[in-house]
Amino acid sequence: MPFSRPSGRQPDQMRDVSILRNYTRHAEGSVLVSFGHTRVLCTASVDNKVPGFLRGKGEGWVTAEYGMLPRSTHTRSDREAARGKQGGRTLEIQRLIGRTLRACVDRGALGERTITLDCDVLQADGGTRTAAITGAYVALVDAVNWLKSRKEIKRDPIHGAVAAVSVGIYRGTPVLDLDYAEDSDCDTDMNLVMNDGGGFIELQGTAEGHAFRRDELDALLALGEKGMGELFAAQRAALAG
Amino acid sequence: MPFSRPSGRQPDQMRDVSILRNYTRHAEGSVLVSFGHTRVLCTASVDNKVPGFLRGKGEGWVTAEYGMLPRSTHTRSDREAARGKQGGRTLEIQRLIGRTLRACVDRGALGERTITLDCDVLQADGGTRTAAITGAYVALVDAVNWLKSRKEIKRDPIHGAVAAVSVGIYRGTPVLDLDYAEDSDCDTDMNLVMNDGGGFIELQGTAEGHAFRRDELDALLALGEKGMGELFAAQRAALAG
Amino acid sequence: MPFSRPSGRQPDQMRDVSILRNYTRHAEGSVLVSFGHTRVLCTASVDNKVPGFLRGKGEGWVTAEYGMLPRSTHTRSDREAARGKQGGRTLEIQRLIGRTLRACVDRGALGERTITLDCDVLQADGGTRTAAITGAYVALVDAVNWLKSRKEIKRDPIHGAVAAVSVGIYRGTPVLDLDYAEDSDCDTDMNLVMNDGGGFIELQGTAEGHAFRRDELDALLALGEKGMGELFAAQRAALAG
Amino acid sequence: MPFSRPSGRQPDQMRDVSILRNYTRHAEGSVLVSFGHTRVLCTASVDNKVPGFLRGKGEGWVTAEYGMLPRSTHTRSDREAARGKQGGRTLEIQRLIGRTLRACVDRGALGERTITLDCDVLQADGGTRTAAITGAYVALVDAVNWLKSRKEIKRDPIHGAVAAVSVGIYRGTPVLDLDYAEDSDCDTDMNLVMNDGGGFIELQGTAEGHAFRRDELDALLALGEKGMGELFAAQRAALAG
Amino acid sequence: MPFSRPSGRQPDQMRDVSILRNYTRHAEGSVLVSFGHTRVLCTASVDNKVPGFLRGKGEGWVTAEYGMLPRSTHTRSDREAARGKQGGRTLEIQRLIGRTLRACVDRGALGERTITLDCDVLQADGGTRTAAITGAYVALVDAVNWLKSRKEIKRDPIHGAVAAVSVGIYRGTPVLDLDYAEDSDCDTDMNLVMNDGGGFIELQGTAEGHAFRRDELDALLALGEKGMGELFAAQRAALAG
Amino acid sequence: MPFSRPSGRQPDQMRDVSILRNYTRHAEGSVLVSFGHTRVLCTASVDNKVPGFLRGKGEGWVTAEYGMLPRSTHTRSDREAARGKQGGRTLEIQRLIGRTLRACVDRGALGERTITLDCDVLQADGGTRTAAITGAYVALVDAVNWLKSRKEIKRDPIHGAVAAVSVGIYRGTPVLDLDYAEDSDCDTDMNLVMNDGGGFIELQGTAEGHAFRRDELDALLALGEKGMGELFAAQRAALAG
Description:
- The structure is a homohexamer of 241-residue chains.
- Helix content of chain A is 32%, strand content 29%.
- By secondary structure, the first copy, chain A, is an alpha+beta fold.
- Chain A has a five-stranded mixed β-sheet.
- The longest helix of chain A is centred in the C-terminal third of the chain and has 27 residues, at 214-240.
- Chain A starts with 16 loop residues before the first strand and ends with a helix.
- Chains in contact: A-B, A-F, B-C, C-D, D-E, E-F.
- Chains B and C meet through helix 2, strand 8, strand 9 and helix 6 of B and helix 2, strand 8, strand 9 and helix 6 of C.
């Protein structure tokens, strides 16, 4: 039986990606990003304060929070606000998003202000963290442009672009951009965060089933590189729109 | 100087109301309701369990949870999941939504299952609780229709419709459906929840500034009744769509 | 069978109301208020600080906290301190009490100080929130008088009086001041907070059973007005005592 | 200058003690105990369940919870329910009360039911824990008598009586039953819990200032014994009343 | 049948005591104390700040925190960090340790700095709190010596030594230094904290079974005094080492 | 200036590794693992229950909890139990440890029981999570051997070994097994978890400074492979001891 993906995609084929700017009206940056059926609302909020450990140092801060609406998922999940705490997976993802976006920001040029990226999943179908990073970058650029248009900052604090994609080994075959059906049934799942200069910012691979070999790792990295090219193009198109 | 509302509306004029069904794909009912710029995503989730106090009684339960995305508001609010608890306003609103929707449900006909309405504000501009109730009713009907289509229930548990609207006294004049600019600067704010038989389910009026008189109350109730008619029409149109 | 109330009262008859001042010795105002078997201890505490959002504005603050002793009720309720959070009902009631009492205070005349009203239910038999508001007003006046006697404030910050009473539809008949037996078995329950000029400060009506009609609302408001007169008289008598 | 206590009492003189039964109407036992200005409401609630670790063993349980109303004290304390947890002092005291009362109960004779003693301080002036134990014992006896009157238990589970008193060294002199003025300014503070057979159940002494010597300990124990006699007499009188 | 202890010790015989200094490398004082199989790691950390209530008063503070590793016990206990709060027993013990060590410190001589004693139980076999106090004293002295060697303090803030031991009545016989087998099966358990001048700092006795008589108390105090002598010798030997 | 590591090690040189078994006496497996000055106590506790989602499926569970003693670090950190929650870093690490050890366990062969690995850091100097995984594996094997010696399991549920090591780019040079001085000042930090068949279980790389290139990744993986060989040898030697 020949290999096929649940969605009928080719192994190296991403889902349709869309990046809509100005999705809501109050935030300085507001982006609805879709990777197939996965839809994440990413807003960037500017605040003229920094956390205590940075006060008086002339540097800014970029941070992120992540959440899933209770029924963004196939079956309803508990609301974290009602349970009274954010789960380990949520904390892990929001730390990743913040760390990743700080990697493309010159915090001195940003000045003593904080930009908070809120990434809220409206609909989940695998890859919410990679969609969130890819969309949050665009919201961040919009917020920085808003600051520039008001002449609040002089130098552009953004250097390069960042995006993220997942790769994995599904039924023995390396594939790009796993959806939920693949994600919940794969042997290895890896999230790649890269910049548009080809450098790695984060690399997180997990063997869910059997451990993966070095040659499999190489194949996954090659797939990831292909997906990255498409994501950077989609970001540029959205920002040019 | 003649009276004028910030939005230029007539005192008895509602904002544009829209009710989109099937907004997300996983929930049994999923509605995006807009009252002007206020946009609330209402999902209805069916679960074949009931809370402990109802177990074994042959009755169902309808409950609600409410949340605001951190940057749905003019300035960013703290994420309740990160603060570790839902605030008093949130608890008050979600208790109201649940109580209100239970008022149009025959819980015996629903059988031993729970329908949870999640009302999440994507964009806030006043009246989020009234939009939430109005939209959640439609999501609830969709979830019940889903149960009926699967023959899981025999009798229709929904009797009548419920909707909600705010009225208030803005700069001395009674007005219908306050937006944020009015809501944050009014003397009296009242939320009305009614059924389509003209009965009151909830009536909550608060004097923010000077106390309101009986004749003002009468004027507010008349405005509310007008708005209700339009909301029930919008719900019927959406469900017929 | 003719209508009768569990307590044998007439439909428009309040329970015996008593308001004892100086019930405990440390607080600047300390009142034990009883509506029949419902007994609430209301203390007013003066603090020479204001919450952060008011600092430096020359205005004071009035706030309230509410609690029930675990065995104030027919069966023991969990202690909120032990459960680690205040429930939604508690938060809703204490927000109501605070909002209501602020409605009769000139916060500029109070100066930069906070008065906290603690309303703790020693024995519950329905109507704890209306008794709390009615008693807290007297405790507030005592605390203000304490400030005046020490010459800490120049102008009287209290304008008018506030009191509260419940009305409802019990077995088809509108009645005044519901006790627990009625409250747990009524169709509609409404709490009225008014000032002694006849103005409404809060109006909260809930249909527990069938929705209530406009003529029923009118009847409830008339009953409420009657009760209010008696409560303002009881407050005046207590303060004159 | 001769020694004198702030209250003018003799070193071996207790404050006036009063024990009022049936103070509130819902609890199976309800006692207002006063040691001078210290007033504690002690209720005993019967529940036909036991904690998990006792289920199916045919034994009962006695436990206690303790709280202070926010303005029972000279200056207002935070409400523990609002802070979201009980402090270390509260937990320590309620564990002491529960342990102490279990010492006079035959848990087999009680059968599989729990009696919860809620000790809530209405007014504090030192010695709240000793007053709580002394009053809770009487509430416990009333709850047990309620069970006996309903023939729910056959044998009396209460053996002997328990009471508690504080002793301490105030300005060099051993004194009995410290009030707040003494408690906050003494060198050594000791709480004694004893039964009416002269046995010690708990003994907790703390040197706040200089360490106490063995002869001082002996003097304190003698004072305590005197106080105990008066407390057992007060309990017997209350129960006979 | 003659009396025997589970460990074969004489009634007045302590377990082997060892006090190892410099057990870990980062803390200003770090001691591993063993009472038989009970092993507690006590570290002393110096911080140049004091709690808010002491700020600007020229005085220092000494405080303690206590914890048990989840599998320090015979069966695994829940991790308090995971449960989200410290239990009542933990709070009680750490309050005791802090109070006790403050009793031998001249807080004026310490200056505006805080020394925190962390007492973490690596292996538990009864008597963890008495071992913790005895070891924490040595860690405290080491931290003070570190301050003196850096000339940060002029006068020695330590006056005298403190140590702690348990005594109890096991199967009718008063015994010294209870291990777990005795502790979980004794009638009376008493913790003594004393200084090396023979004064009592804390005395906490609890009758787990029948109440204890005055002559039993006297026997327990005599045993305690003997144990104290050995503990002070062990502390002196360790500090001389 | 030639490259040198703060510790004087060669770039491909690990710190001294030691693995002590039976470090504490109650746990079924108890290991003190040291990577240089980093010391982690890993205990394995067997419980004859499984979490709810596995009940009745005939499979076991392996999970982990992680903590740092407050003064295991250079400056004291807050105690998580006192703060009332585990931080994001802690949750992330304990999820990693659990996932990793499950990768070498046949959960069917384990049967319906849970093994909990508690990894508590006594002294931290970089690499606590890699030391924890390496040591926890040995504790797990000891717990499984304990089960086998009692004939509670028939087949060996352990397949292969797992260990972990960090690699990173310090001042431009790829190095093996970073200590704290390197970790807090490096450009890229990567944690590798592998099995003794050469397969990857987890791969987590983060660019703290500039993004890392593909050739740097290859160099890091080669270093990691070398370290893994030494760790598997150390585990085998300890288990043979």
